[in-house]
Amino acid sequence: MLNPPMKTIQGIAVAPGIEIASAFVLEQFRQRVPHHIVVPEERAGELERFEQALQAAMDDLAADRDRAARDLSKEAAKIFEFHLGLLQDPTLLDPIRDKIGNAGTNADFAVASSFSRMIDQFNAMGSQVFRDKARDVLDLERRILDHLMGRSQERLSRLEEQVVLIAHELTPTQAASLGISQVVGLATDAGGRTDHTSIMAAALGIPVVVGCHAITEHVNDGDLIILDVRDGQIIIDPDEETLEVFRKAKKRLEQFLTETGQDVGAEAITRDGTKITLLGNIEFPHEVEQLLKYGGEGVGLYRTEFLYLISEDEPTEEELYEQYVQSLELLGGRTLTIRTLDLGADKHTQQQALEPERNPFLGLRSIRYSLQHLPMFRRQLRAILRAAAVGPLRIMFPLITTMTELKQARMILSDVADDLRQEGVDVPSDIPIGMMIEVPSAALMASTFSREVDFFSIGTNDLIQYTVAVDRSNERVANLYSASNPAVIRLVKNVIRAGKRRGVDTSLCGEIAGDITYTMLLIGLGLRSLSLVPAQIPRVKQVIRRVTLEECERLARKVGAFESHRRILRVLREETRRVLPEADGGWNAD
Ligand code: PEP
Ligand code: MG
Asked: Which of 198, 303, 361, 467 best tests ligand 1's pocket when mutated (most atoms within 8 Å of CB)?
């Protein structure tokens, strides 16, 4: 019998590796809800799944109604009463039951399609009253789908066999929870290489491909999947011959990773004796253990947003303080670079905002957000400054675009330090203060900024998007988002030069720091410190140990003369392949 043709889907490579496992399709709300046909013998179970989700949504509504009646008013409670009525309306529910029980549609899709028809009908009626009703129906849909999705999530956490997770996109919480599941690889419809969720998934050290457009529509639970991050491709239901090829490639890669992983004690030093400091990017204190395991020498970027993202309530000063202290203690005397809040854009739940921004990456994000939410900013600074007594710590401000912002941030910091000293807290006076260089205005003015800071950290994830005007999380324009764009390289070079002239310590903490394709170039441009995902340290170190500074400088000069990012990338890849041929599958640059 002939095998059916294999399906191949192209995405954007994020974290290197090859994985072969069955698919687990995560059902999620606010996405193209997966559509599949349930076999007749499982339809009763699927119907039951729907009934349970419906009941759970009604229980939630009843609880909200009671709470509203108690804490607000009888009028407020009536809204929930009205919603409860809608959820008992047979004109809405019967078609859903029919779709699941008779047509075999999966419950999620049956709910989503019936609700959207009703929403469209209300919206088409034109008046505000009906548009409001459409919003009510949308809320009810969310409530039911949340319960259906919750089950999918719950099933995922109980899985015993290893899976490749297929999802539309993940929330930061979902990405963080992958670490405790059996997920050995991830492919998503949406996303770009450096959006926040991709970064979190990459930190787990599993292969990740994002921006596959509609992979959730092509893959069913249980399909065999090959995730090949060398080319950012996903092969669905491969034939035996293809499987064999990839099994061998996977084995070769694993062998290489084991060998490099054993080398953690070795110094990151070029063949001709130039030392490169390799620091880690972390988001949680427990990642410090990983960092040390992989031979990292400190933390160059501690992203501090997570506690703010997972809850509607702001974390307390004490909670923040504990996290920072825990990280410092685990680091045992190595330096912790804490970046102040970088909320907004991809790290802010725009859904929670009353008026979502039209252009969040150009909006109230990062240091701008902190400067407009001073009590929140001051609470974080207090926690950081108090933690400074426990171990060496540096403070870094993100997304500085003007000198005024930097000066304001520094002024607030010193004001908070004065307050603490008045309260009797011993705040060290020599904490290094630095800034991230993530926008062209800062990169171009680096020599001016260098007079005001102790260190620079170049954030290429944002610097690329602002230089080439491409949203870093938008898969539709991902082909234009490239660190090898000559304009980006020129800006990076400008910052390194400005830093060197004034003795301002300059590091780079964007994702390219962990991509071996760029290691030689970055050293050749003059960087002596990189901050990267801990799991990527061994590979980068391998490249460093095999090259000379002269080779790197020659390469930087050579590509500096090219006009096209494709040509630059091709040469960088060729060089990397020459230096580290065993790392086949160990890169992620596009
Ligand atoms: C960057 O922009 O390069 C960076 C490191 O910050 P983030 O990815 O958190 O925006
Ligand atoms: Mg950034």
From this structure: 303
pTM of the model: 0.77
Q: How confident is the model at residue 26 (pLDDT cuts 50, 70, 90)?
A: confident
**Distance, CA 464 to ligand 2 centroid (Å)?**
10
User: Strand 233-236 to strand 208-210: parallel, antiparallel, or no bridges (unpaired)?
Assistant: unpaired
pLDDT confidence tier of residue 173, bands split at 50, 70 and 90: low
**Confidence band, pLDDT 50/70/90 cuts, at residue 480:** very high
Closest ligand by atom to 339 CA: 1
Residues 6+ apart with CB under 8 A from 437: 400, 443, 446, 449, 456, 457, 458, 459, 463, 495
Q: Does the CB atom of residue 510 touch ligand 1 within 6 A?
A: yes
Task: Determine the distance separating the centroid of ligand 2 and the alpha carbon of 434, expressed in angstroms.
Answer: 14
Structural domains of the chain in order of their starting residue, each with its CATH number = 7-27+153-255 (3.50.30.10), 40-150 (1.10.274.10), 263-582 (3.20.20.60)
Look up residue 361 and give its DSSP letter. G
- Is the distance from the beta carbon of residue 346 to the nearest atom of ligand 1 less than 6 Å? no
Backbone angles phi, psi at 531, to 5 degrees: -125, 125
Closest C-alpha to ligand 1, atom 4: 459
Residue whose CA lies nearest to ligand 1 atom number 1? 459
pLDDT tens digits for 347-398?
A: 665 555 666 788 889 999 999 999 999 999 999 999 999 999 999 999 999 9
Crossing angle of helices 374-387 and 403-422, in 10° steps, is 60
Contact 338, 324 (CB under 8 A): yes
CB distance 522 to 512 below 8 Å: yes
Going by alpha carbons, the residue nearest to atom 6 of ligand 1 is 459
Mean pLDDT for 543-562 is: 97
Residue pLDDT, tens place only, 30-62: 455 777 888 899 999 999 999 999 998 898 888
Q: Is the distance from the beta carbon of residue 195 to the nearest atom of ligand 1 less than 6 Å?
A: no
Phi, psi of 219 (to 5 degrees): -110, 140
Task: List Cα–Cα distances, 28 to 138, 352, 546, in angstroms.
Answer: 15, 17, 45
Q: Known catalytic residues?
A: 196, 509
d(CA 243, CA 363): 47
Q: What's the CA gap between 491 and 504, in Å, rounded?
A: 16
With beta carbons less than 8 A apart as the criterion, state whether 429 and 455 touch. Answer: no
CA of 460 to the centre of ligand 1 (A): 7
